[in-house]
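Purpose: get a first structural picture of the assembly so the mutagenesis plan has something to point at.
Setup: two entries, given in the order below. No constraints added.
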Amino acid sequence: MSSATNEIRSDLGLYDYLPWPDRPKITWPGGKKIAVWIAPNIEFYEYNPPNNPTRTPWPRPNPDVLQYSHRDYGNRAGWQRMMAAMDAAGFRGSVSLNVALCDHHPEIIRACADRGWEFFSHGIYNTRYVYNMTIEQEREIIRDAFETVRKHTGQELAGWLSPALSNNLWTMDILSEAGIQYTCDMFHDDQPMPVKVKTGRLISMPYSLEMNDVIVYNTQKTTPRHYGEIIKRQFDQLYKEGEESGTVMCIPLHPYLVGQPHRIDAFAEAIEYIAGHDGVWKATGREIAEAYHSSGAYDAMKAAMAAHAAEQENR
Amino acid sequence: MSLPDSYLEYPARRYGMDHDRYDWSDLFQRKPVTWPGGARIALSIVTHVQHFPLDMPAKPFKAPGALSMPYPDFRYYTNRDYGNRIGIYRVLRLLAEKGLRTSMAINGIIAARYPALIRAVVADGHEVVAHGLDMGKVHHSGLSADEEGSIIAETLELLRKVSGQKVDGWLSPGRAQSFNTPELLVKNGVRYALDWANDDMPYAMRTKEGAILAMPLAYETDDRVVADEYFHSEPEWVQQVKDRFDVLYRESAEYGGRVMSLPLHSWVSGMPYRIEYLREVLDYMLSHEGVWTAPAGEIADAFKAQA
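Result (C-alpha cells, whole complex):
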C-alpha cells in the first residue's frame, strides 16, 4: 500500500506560467487556423453504485430513478441524434468514455468505431470517483481502461478525463507513466501545454468547461438556442486568432443533454456553421496531441516557459 | 480514509443494463408505431395537481416545489395551494376551449380535501393519474414494502372512489421510486407509470408481479423545471416546447409515431401571466396535421395494441 496522500498545498504545481503574448507559434497540419474537436461524453451511471465518502453518486438514495433514467436517455435516444448532427457536419468524435460502456452497450461503441472516432478514457463508470483511492487502486483503473478499450476497439488510449473530473495530486504522474499523452482535466489555457510530470511528455488539451453542455445548460442555465450562439461566438474569436497561431476549440457534449429533441437543432446548426469555414481542421484529441509534438510546439513551449522563469529570476 | 477493494469490483458490469427492469433498446431501431387515425404525434399533456403539507418532512429528500421557508411557511404552502383553487380551473378552461382530453396527475389527498376539483376534472373527460398521496410522501428505499404499499393503496383508493375511474396510471411525487415501487404498483392494479425519463416512447418494464408500461414524460421542458430550475422566461419555455415538438414531428416521418409529452403544473402554468403562453404552445402543436391528443392511458392502450 502506498502512503501517498493529497497534502494540502496552495499551488497545483502542474504547469509553469507563460503569458499569452509572444508565445512560440503553433502550426497545424496543412496550415489550418483552428483545430476543432468534439468530445462526446458517452457515459454509464450505475443504478446502485457504492458510496464514496467524498462524493455521494446520486442526490437521492439509491435508486435515484429520475437521475439514473435521465442519464440513460443518452444511451437509448440522445446518442443517435448527436451522432447524426456530427455526421451531417462531417465531424468525428473523440469519445470521453466510461469504459464499462463497452460491456453494457457494444452497439454504441461499434457505431462510433465504424466512423473512425477516437476513444479516450473517462474512467470505468461516472459513478466511481478516484477520491480516496490509493495510487495502486488508481493505477488499477488506468490499467482496466487501457485493456478494455484495446479489447473492444483495438485502440491504444491516448487521452484521459478523470471520472466526473475527480482527481488526486498524483493522478497526472501515473497517467503519464501509463502512456497517456493528453489530459482534459485542466482549463488554464487555450493552447495545449506541457504538464509537469515525473515521466513522459504529457500535455493538457484544451477541453473547455464553458463549452461543455452540462455546464452551459445546468450550471449557467443557458437556453438551448443560446448554446448554439455561444458555440458560434467562441469559434469566431478563435478562428480569427488562428491567423496568428493555430488555435484549439473543443465542444464537450453529453448525449443525454444535447441529444434531447428541444436542443439538438441549435447544436446541429452551430457545428454546420463551423464546418462551413475554410481553414478548419476537424481533428480528434489524439491527432491534435500528435501534431503538437511533431510540429515542435511541445518543445518550443517548454523552452519558452523555462526562459520566462529564468528571466523572472534575473529581474 | 481509503476505499475498500470492493470499490473496484463491478458486479453488474455486463451486456445491457445494470439491473433487470428493462432491456437496452435503441429508439431509432424499433418497430414503427402508428397512432389512431394515422396520427404522427400522440400529444400527452399531464398536469400535476399537488398538495404540499405544511409539515412536510425534509428527509430523506424533499420533492421539487417543496416548502422551503422556516416553519410555518405561509408563502409556499399557499402559493402551491393556489394551483388547486384557481390554477387548475384556468388550465381546465383552456383545455376545454381547445376540446382536449388529457391526463391530470393528482395527489391522492386532493380527493379527500377537494373532491370538487376531482369532479371538475372528470366532468371534462380527463383521466385521473395517481400522483402519490401528497408531496410530503416521497417514495424511497428507506420505506419498508409494507409502508410504501399502504401509501400506494391509500392513494389509489381515494382517487378511484371520488373519480369513479379505474385509475391505473401512476406518477410518483418527485418521480422518485424505491427498489420496490414497480412491483407495488403492479400489485395495486397500476398499468403504466410516468416516472422514468429515459425514452421518448413507451416501453415495457419488468417487475416480479408482471409488466408495467413506462410512459414518456419530458423532464427538461416541464413548466416547473424550466421556470424554477432553469429560470428561463415563458417565451423561452414556449420556444423549447415548440423545438421539441418540431424534432419529434420530423422524426415521425421516418421512424413512426412519436409521443410528445407536455408536463404542466396547475400552480405554474395556471398563473394569469402564463396561461396565454400555454395557449400559444397548444395552438402551435395543434396547427400541425396528424396530432392526436389523448390521455396517457389511451396512448398506452394504443401502444400496447401494436407492441
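The mean pLDDT of chain A is 96.
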